[in-house]
Amino acid sequence: MTPTTRQIELHHLAHSRTGDKGGTANISLIPYEAECFALLLEQVTEEAVYELFRHRRPASVRRYVLPKLCALNFVLEDVLDGGVNDSLNLDTHGKTLSFLLLSLKIEVPAELAMRFARKGAAG
Amino acid sequence: MTQSTLAIGCAAGFGGDRTDAALPIVETLIARGGAGVLIFEMLAERTLALAQLERRKNPELGFAPLLELMVRPVLRRCLENDIPIVSNFGAANPQAAARLIQRIAAEQGIHNARIAVVEGDDLSDERGRKLLRAYLKPADAAREIVSANVYLGAEAIADALRAGAQIVVTGRVADPSLVVGPALAAFDWPADDWDKLGRATMAGHLLECGAQVTGGYFADPGCKDVPELHNVGFPIAELEADGSFVITKADHTGGIVNAQTVKEQLLYELHDPAAYLTPDVVADISDAEVEVIGENRVVVANVRGHRRPDTLKATVCFAGGWLGEAEISYAGPNAEQRARLAAEIIRRRIGNELKLRVDLIGSLSVFADDDGNALAAFSSANARDVRLRVACVHDDRSAVEQLTREVTALYTCGPAGGGGVRTTITPRLNSVSCFIPRELVPARFSFLQ
User: Which value does ipTM take for this structure?
Assistant: First the structure.
């Protein structure tokens, strides 16, 4: 990390929602400000998301880019231990997982990190 | 709103939703004038299997348990103001649901309500099972079926409305079809005008989870605040004859409709944005745009549609054994270590016979995996208020009872200061999906006599 950048949680930059179908979860990722979309495109890659969810052994991670909506949609196959059918998780649907994605650390220009700190966004 | 605008309000997004959401929607539709429709979406994947079990116990049950609480407060207002009600609350017994609605209407002094029932989705009878055997995997085809339903589309709903239905009761239909049906009936679109069907389908997709587009499932204090969330208003879509629509909400309610709530719900349970498959159309939002045009008013533009699939999805549910869950709390100094020791005791006593999942609620739980990889790799956070949860599933109920007994025995045989044991054993349902050529599973409607 160079002195001109800071690591912050994705939660400062974007919001997210999880949906499920069977054992597959989809997790949207939507930046609060359009200017942050490029940062997300660059750093929230399929590989980065796979790494974050590795302990749940997704069969695949696919990222769909929706430039006009300024949003990303991640589809994680077989990440729910069988989902509502088979999972022993309290959260069989994986509804909480959007906030696992939002815990991803992102490297941002220090100036941007300062701006989010001033806004006082939590987490 | 133009003269021909069709306003569709959604007062439930699942079978357990709030029962007081409909009245503000109905009053909003009446105050605005013009054509209005009220929908309730009340069937998740497993809801229908539970309903089928209810029906076997009592042939007059098997519809959505909250139907009466949802409908009673608004039935008379809707019937007197020409607001049709369309819902899948018929679940496993649409005929019985229709009879109940007829009785409620009669109690409210209305004896001529035109109530239609859409059928054709239920494949749990002998004919349906025979059909399914050709499309299920052999191992699944041999299992005992609890419920089997195909996702019907919008056409039979539209036909019922065109024939003058004031209430349309369905079993399993694709959720967005609850909106597409009224749109087809109102605008007389050709059944292959894919772009218009795609737009109405995405309007339906945005409505089908109720408050999830108006500020529910959204608030994150300090980041995404929602006004008056305790009184969140449910959504209304204003559709035009070209399929374009505005998402808004009931008047005099809390909640919010903005670009963020609409984007989150647009992508909810969606995989490939270019191919959202329903019985009516393949909707495509890859070029969609969201525009705020007023307070709590959002337009979704550039939705397209492609030719509908030739097959319909069927969901088949089987008995899935017994789920056992048992919990105990540890708090204060060294709490996490005591909870971990308790888990270790359970593992050593029954871990060889049963596949156990362990959660340390308050330290690591829902983010972790069933195999315990995350928990093993997770160094202790020294949480001071931890609830140990152990879960297992087994076909044999007595095997599951072993787990609940062992966790209960931690009171006296486990680590110091364990309290608040709770145990539950519940039957589980498994489901699989298959695809059936649509011409083999026709939908039909009939009026309740």
Answer: 0.95
